[in-house]
Here is the input.
Amino acid sequence: MTVLPIDDPTKRRVLRVSCQREFSYTILHPARPVLDPEELALSEAVAGRPVLLVADKNVWRLFGKQICEYAGRHLNCLATVTVHGTERRKDWTQIRKVCSEALRVGLPRDGVIVAFGGGVTLDLAGMAASLYRRGVAYVRVPTTLVGIIDTAVGIKQGFNFESRKNMLGAFYPPEGVINDINFLRTLSSAELACGVAEIIKMGMVREGSLITLLEDHGATLIRNNFQAPTGLAMEVLLRAERVMIEELQPNLFEKCQARLADFGHTFSPALERASGYGLRHGEAVALDMVLSTAIAVRRGLCAESLFNRLVDLCRKMGLPLESPLLRPELLLCSVHETRLHRSGDLNLVVPVELGRADFLQEVTLDDLDHALAMIEETSYEQPLCRQASAGL
Amino acid sequence: MTVLPIDDPTKRRVLRVSCQREFSYTILHPARPVLDPEELALSEAVAGRPVLLVADKNVWRLFGKQICEYAGRHLNCLATVTVHGTERRKDWTQIRKVCSEALRVGLPRDGVIVAFGGGVTLDLAGMAASLYRRGVAYVRVPTTLVGIIDTAVGIKQGFNFESRKNMLGAFYPPEGVINDINFLRTLSSAELACGVAEIIKMGMVREGSLITLLEDHGATLIRNNFQAPTGLAMEVLLRAERVMIEELQPNLFEKCQARLADFGHTFSPALERASGYGLRHGEAVALDMVLSTAIAVRRGLCAESLFNRLVDLCRKMGLPLESPLLRPELLLCSVHETRLHRSGDLNLVVPVELGRADFLQEVTLDDLDHALAMIEETSYEQPLCRQASAGL
Here is the structure.
């Protein structure tokens, strides 16, 4: 701390506050299902502290009994709050509900919020944990593929505000994450495909082997709800999580806003919003990845063969390639919004070869027209598995 | 990052995410008034970035024209939002208003929220800054004595939730603080006294010289609105800020919840709440300090002479010593609430000698009865300057 002489009336006086903060958390794949009475991963994570459980309503419907049994045996659980884990309800009202329940049951500052659910539920519970008493411990138990390989890995919490996706939020590290693939048994193919979209993302821009793995085994894994072949499912998940950690860890607070993990996340928020959140996040990400890659091809940055490979893989995974929302004016608008969110830069992530990407700072109407034409052409070649028409 | 072998089906797989984060900010007393067209402190702090101004409605009424003139000349100001800077309105509605305006005018992620106001306004703007786009830069210009020597120094933001004081909040460091004592010209003696209460706090538990300075010059400083004698006013303020920094800096995120800066802040939140926030924060702090010190005397931890010195000083500063709210049942209730907020510990800060304090973990009804009787006795000795009767 520096204090300049205080007896000189012409000088400014300056004091300085400095701080260094460290944190670390683990992402743990337990040996048994997390709710198995013999599995102590969750019990050890909360270590006897008072717990407020937050669960997605669907998760509660499917696993409520098991959660209660586990909590009764292993946790000091004060109460359970259920929330709507849908993008349309990812708002302040539900965060307030969690905080209100925490206050009602007297969750102390050394209490723990434990969340069971997908990306939306994890974000809502994470926001509540970050705000309640200026922050209590937070343990995440993702129940979706997106949750396991994407949401649960990083430290971003967020909620929608005035219909803008994740416009408010916080960087708030969890204390622990427990990734149990048994929850994936209950997901539909479309939901699993959304998770796969995020794996494709990291494969395209950073770890090409994920693309090869998915090309060879993705359809089987989705068909088997990532339950078999076990070794292979774990291999894909752990590799995806590891690549995500390697990518996020040096830039957890996003001081640098040129982020490879933003591949597929430039146009997609506007697409989701324009669909009234009928389009799933992973579907919007797929549309964005295909579009961004088409732009890269058009710019001569990327071989058309890689674009075709991406298109084929998305098709195989049941991800949409086209949507009536892919209109140039909407896309240009999202370019503008993205710039606001990335401090004036666009940082559009475009693949340049398998596992390597670059950032574009400009996208013209011409780029978009050509890219959209290229995507349209592709769709004539083969019938699409499914079109992203939800919510239209 | 550690990944255990993934081919052993009986083992847990564990990945780890670790991060170290540093930050630092300055508290600057400019040479000229911050709104003087020649003073560049604020202009330099925002460095050309887009600004959203947040101002307390009273501050805007008094200084709006000057703020506009300064902004017109030196800042890239997108808009101004005014808020009610009162404890009763320190709620989500006003934070939402600030975020909504930031979104409406397109404040980008590299934009800056600049707040003019007292503790409440600074907290509301700080919360908005912490949430909007998961955090934008935040510059504080406190306009009250509490703001200058207390709120603006640390990194705590907070707002009231379900009528509970600062139940939700965040630890969010500002990017800069500009402390301009010229704003103090407009404050009432009662408002100044509230700031002095926070100086007394740090004097009692950490820096005895502040008590001596206030005993000798406090009344003059309040009478002169901390404008004269200039050197002395600056001396008191800078010393208070410096002591506060020394106290807060090693524990900015409150990992340790035994905090000397909590002297006067154990019973006071319940007193404020019970008064319907008619009792000023500094007044409640004064009542709490006197009560806590009486408990210390009763326990034989502190000489009665120090209690008398505190009582005399509070009286001299126009701070209340008594209130009909000082009822044992309310106080015991706040002991319970405090324990929740301090992870089970009470950590009641009690002075043991001038500039030195200790923490109590238990307070009995008997302690409270005796302490209250001791305070009542004091009030018979001399007529009180004023009683805390606001809001009753």
About this structure: Chain B has two domains: 26-186, 189-238+257-381. Chain B touches chain A through 80 residues (CB under 8 Å). Confidence is low (pLDDT under 50) at residues 1-9, 383-392 of chain B. The domain at 26-186 of chain B is CATH 3.40.50.1970 (Rossmann fold).
